[in-house]
Amino acid sequence: MSKKSEPDKIVTGSNFNGSFQEIEEKYKFIVNAYGEMMTLINREYVYELVNDSWCRTFGKSREDFIGKTVSEVWGDKKFNSEIKGKIDQCLNGIVFKEEDSFIIAGGERRYYAVTYCPFRDKNQEVTHAVGVTNDITERKEAEIALRKSEKDLRELNEKKDRYLSIINSDLDKAFIYVSSLLPEEIDTQEISIRWKIIPSARLGGDSLGYHWIDNEHLAVYMLDVTGHGVGAALHSVSALNMLKFETLVNTNFRKPHEVLNGLNQVFQMTEHQSLFITLWYMVYNKTK
Predict the structure, then answer these.
(1) How many CB atoms lie within 10 A of CB 241?
(2) What are the tens digits of pLDDT across the range 207-257?
């Protein structure tokens, strides 16, 4: 005899409900364990669901939200000016995203990425707005710090450019002044002196000069002060003027050794920031 087949088992309503309740509990656990804040708002702008993350962030219980309108929770002014328009877009079937900041429990300001997603029923009608909020404070603060750094850097570069412009202008003036001290070229039957100046990238302590000491003697000199910059240039100008106007005391400018000794006494390194002068000095006697 053939064995009779057993009838198919029927899933009863109680079994189905039990399974559904188990799934629902798991769903609630996942939603509440989720780090992001979640809310469910109906077309009357009433909170129907908030998860644990939402309550912890604002330091309130579910009872402070569930069954209450958004305006009751956050105030009419904030609701009408900041929140309602976003929820309305969502209830019209549009996913709305923005970044915003809130004062949370403890008075701390945090930054969040907020997304409102339309929730549709089986007829594809939008019945709710699902709000998902992510904490982006660390990223936002990094962006703010980066923008501040970029702003500070731009301001520093602008200041640097202004200062460099002033410095370059002063250096140009210093170069013009030093150049004005150089003597005119000499081109006579007795003597011819020509020179050419080639400016360097930096102001230095090089200079030259010549002048008639008397009708017979022509002093010619070239000097170089160590280093570069305004300090070396001014040091060079001081020495050049002493030679040009013969202001060294008790010095016969027809005798180079006396001139060198005189300058050495005036320009001691210990008194001039270790700057020293290299000098070539000669006297030409046109009668000999």
Answers:
(1) 14
(2) 899 999 999 999 999 999 887 777 787 888 899 999 999 999 999 999 999
Point out which residues pair with 119 in neighbouring strands.
128
CA–CA distance, 115 with 109 (Å, rounded to integer) = 19
Residue 56, domain member (yes or no): yes
Give per-residue pLDDT as tens, 88-112. 999 999 999 998 887 887 888 889 9
**Domain residues for 61?**
19-141
Write out the two tokens for 28: 């609630």
Do 204 and 135 belong to one domain? Answer: no
The Cα-based distances of 129 to 27, 37, 76, 92, 118 in angstroms read: 18, 14, 19, 10, 5
